Amino acid sequence: MALPIDGFYTSGDPRALSILAKTLYRELRAGGYAEKDVIALAAELLGIVTSEVKGRRGKAGE
User: Phi/psi zone of residue 7: left (φ > 0), alpha (ψ -120 to 50 degrees), beta?
Assistant: First the structure.
């Protein structure tokens, strides 16, 4: 599964992340992943981002 990530996202194009999300979803589903697997992946990504943001907030308050 090769995703078009390199050079794909530019902050000037608000559609870029939506297109990337749809592409990722389609590729995962085509690769045999179930909807529950995609939901689990989304939850893991949110958890990682949440931890990173919390970590930055904690360091900023020190």
Answer: left
CA proximity to 37, closest of 26, 28, 27? 28
pLDDT tens digit sequence for 11-54: 667 788 899 999 999 999 999 999 999 999 999 999 999 999 99
CA atoms within 13 A on the CB side of 20: 13
Delimit the domains of the chain by residue range.
34-62
CA distance 9 to 14: 9
Tokens of 33: 């992943």
pTM above 0.85, yes or no: no
